[in-house]
Amino acid sequence: MNAEDLIITAAALVAGNKGLLAMDESNVTCNKRFDNSGIKPTEENRRAYRELLITTPGLSKYISGAILYDETIRQRKEDGTAFIKVLIDEGIIPGIKVDTGTKNMPGHSGEKITEGLDGLPERLAEYRTLGARFAKWRTVISLGGGLPSRACIEANAHSLALYAAYCQEASMVPIVEPEVLMEGEHTMEQCHQVTEELLRAVFNQLYTQGVMLEGLILKPNMVLPGLNCSKQNTVHDVAEATLNCLLRAVPGAVAGIAFLSGGQSAELASARLNAINSKLNLKRPWPLAFSFARAIQQPALEIWHGESKNIEAAQRALLHRAQCNQFARAGEYNANTELQNQQSLQDALVSNRLQTNECKD
Questions:
Q1: What is the mean pLDDT of residues 156-172?
Q2: What backbone torsions phi and psi does residue 82 show, to the nearest 5 degrees?
Q3: What angle (nearest 5°) sits at the alpha carbon of residue 270, between those of residues 251 and 305?
Q4: Can you give the pLDDT at residue 228?
């Protein structure tokens, strides 16, 4: 383990009001999103879409690192350039998802355990050789109907800690992602209680495994009401509850916190991130960044629609969302931010339509 490198890399991932682009969807998940957007779910389309993302001009102004999937880290641009080289040349740190997904937890109906520890040291060694400098492991916790059980929390916390220890042994920064899912009717207060319990269990296990917190990034959910809860709290309520929860459960030595979006809309995720970073009266010892997937990618995916003529407009949409989240990290995001960037995006779409019509003529 190279402790100095871990600390430097972890700090770089949350520096400069930037955040992480989570593009680590499995092939199955990516294909489902393609299907929903009317895009043919092929390997070549996955490659082309990922090339669109990583070659977006100016992306490194807003994005510090990109989380890749096993297929993605091995892919190349159409001209043969490795994706990893593109990212490194752009100044974006490559990372890799290393869990192998969730399975039903035995004896606990409705609960999941994340797998992937078997063979992890060998996979980490290979990924580091390929150029990855950090990794990610996600665990999911359902809330409601008597869930979660203490057994589910402890089992997943233990796996997260072992994964983190393996990462640091391989001189790779672990991103630890314990997610309380948004699905359900639970209140924000119930989410607060379970999130705090989960985080305490995770950090207790990290301490037991000897994981160096200065070389680790936490990727938690925001404290939110369930999607079907009758009371949807304001962004300011969410910000206060989230910060209070983190201050109670997350040690100050952690290098940084990068929130997941968890199915929130792009605009709402930015607004809530902004509200969290605007709470200047609540002191926090760590940078509060973002690690969004759909909340950054979805508008670009819908514009691209699998057609090369739409690449420029799709990349503008991606930059728009990345820039909005950079503003949110600084506590400077507002409706005007959306309007100004949307106008730029609209101009690109109009230009694209005009060019298309000219080609037809």
A1: 98
A2: -65, 140
A3: 125
A4: 96
Name the pTM for this structure: 0.93
Q: What is the C-alpha separation between 307 and 170, in angstroms, rounded?
A: 40
Work out the mean pLDDT of the chain and round it to a whole number.
94
Cα(127)–Cα(174) distance, integer angstroms: 13
Catalytic one among 219, 240, 312, 338?
A: 219
Enumerate residues 6+ apart whose C-beta is below 8 A from 8. none
Return all residues near 160 (Cβ < 8 A) that are at least 6 apart: 114, 137, 139, 176, 177, 178, 202, 205, 206
**Is the pLDDT at 327 greater than 70, yes or no?**
yes
Tell which CATH architecture fits domain 3-360. Answer: Alpha-Beta Barrel (3.20)
CB 195 within 8 A of CB 30: no
pLDDT given at position 361: 46
Neighbours of 244 (CB within 10 A): 15
| DSSP category for residue 42 | -
The predicted pLDDT at position 346 comes to: 61
The secondary element (H helix, E strand) that includes residue 258 is strand 256-259
Nearest alpha carbon to residue 19 among 67, 53, 85, 72: 67
What three-state secondary structure class fits 314? helix
CA-to-CA distance for 320 and 267, rounded, in angstroms? 11
Choose, from 177, 196, 240, 312, the residue flagged as catalytic: 177
Q: What value does the mean pLDDT take over residues 97-102?
A: 97
Asked if residue 63 lies in contact with residue 19, where contact means CB atoms within 8 angstroms, the answer is yes
Contact 166, 124 (CB under 8 A): yes
Of 185, 170, 183, 160, whose CA–CA distance to 102 is shortest? 160
Tokens of 268: 């709402």
- Active site annotation includes 196: no
CB-based contacts of 86: which residues, under 8 Å, 6+ apart?
A: 54, 55, 77
- What pLDDT does residue 163 have? 98
For 222, which DSSP code? Answer: P
Residue 158 has pLDDT above 90, yes or no: yes
The confidence score (pLDDT) of residue 356 equals: 45
112 is catalytic: no
Calculate the CA dihedral of residues 168, 169, 172, 178 and round it to 10 degrees.
Answer: -40
